[in-house]
Design brief:
This protein has 14 helices and no strands. By secondary structure, it is mainly alpha-helical. The radius of gyration is 22 Å and the shape is globular.
């Protein structure tokens, strides 16, 4: 049997290679931008850092030794930082910044791949990844020392790889351990598998539960409840206001890099920001 071998022109091979490098470059841009900012640690992050130090030093998964109160909402982030602390990396704000920057670099990479999978052209896919790379809110959260960047990466990856049930189930379990609202992501993943397979995805449910159930059992036995006290306190003092949250979202879309108090000094900028933000939000919904 004779087989024909098609030799592509070298220019085509080089062009394909360069296109394959674009998402990696977008990831490197996101990484460089966040590392250049340096740690800008939020006060909430120090709560998790204290849990990390006490756990690493054998004092228990507690804020104050001897007081079994769950005050952190991110057991996964706490355990990851504890592992690095035990390796001798005690600069927790610096470690958190590096890990968050790497997570955002991976997110930029995945955003590019997702856009291409959805049929976007090369230029628009690159623009999407770069928009995330330079997004002020994302940069600020990465520098904050909190788990936001890791949560974003896990949530995006779980939704993008929903066609790979076991992978998505693992990511769904991890995203729940990263933040409580990860339950929404895990439910979407399992729901998508339920619709596609037309039967309960028991295997995926078992995998996701294998991550979540042990933590729930430990937290219930150790603290008396798996619900963090900080969540209960905020829920009682700050009831959810849908309109206020929507306004905050639209303002941030319309004025990237600016604080809301700055806008409140003059009414026209607020109106302009709301108009721009509403248009951007509408465009995202269309996409």
């Amino acid at each position: 049997m004779l087989t024909a071998r098609v030799q592509l022109p070298r220019s085509v091979e080089v062009g394909a290679g360069r296109r394959a490098m674009i998402p990696a470059v977008c990831g490197l841009v996101a990484l460089s931008v966040r590392l250049s900012v340096g740690p800008l640690t939020y006060d909430d992050a120090y709560i998790t850092f204290r849990y990390v130090r006490n756990l690493a030093n054998g004092l228990g998964f507690v804020y104050n030794p001897g007081q079994y109160v769950l005050g952190t909402t991110t057991p996964l982030w706490t355990l990851i930082l504890t592992a690095f602390y035990q390796l001798g990396l005690h600069d927790l704000p610096g470690v958190a910044l590096v890990l968050s920057s790497l997570a955002d670099a991976a997110t930029a990479y995945l955003l590019f791949l997702a856009a291409r999978r959805f049929g976007w052209e090369l230029g628009w896919s690159t623009w999407l990844a770069l928009l995330f790379a330079f997004c002020p809110l994302s940069v600020g959260f990465a520098a904050s020392g909190m788990e936001s960047s890791l949560f974003t990466l896990l949530a995006l990856a779980a939704l993008l790889y929903v066609d790979f049930p076991r992978v998505a189930a693992v990511l769904g379990g991890l995203v729940v351990l990263c933040r409580p609202e990860g339950v929404i992501v895990a439910a979407l993943v399992l729901g998508a598998q339920l619709i596609r397979e037309r039967r309960l995805p028991l295997g995926s449910l078992a995998i996701t539960g294998g991550f979540v159930v042990p933590w729930l059992a430990f937290a219930t036995a150790y603290y008396g409840s798996p619900l963090p006290e900080s969540v209960l306190v905020k829920a009682s003092h700050y009831p959810p206001d849908v309109l206020a949250n929507l306004r905050f979202l639209v303002l941030n879309l319309g004025t990237p890099g600016f604080d809301e108090p700055l806008l409140e000094t003059s009414r026209p900028p607020i109106i302009l920001a709301l108009v721009v933000g509403a248009l951007l939000l509408a465009s995202l919904l269309v996409f």
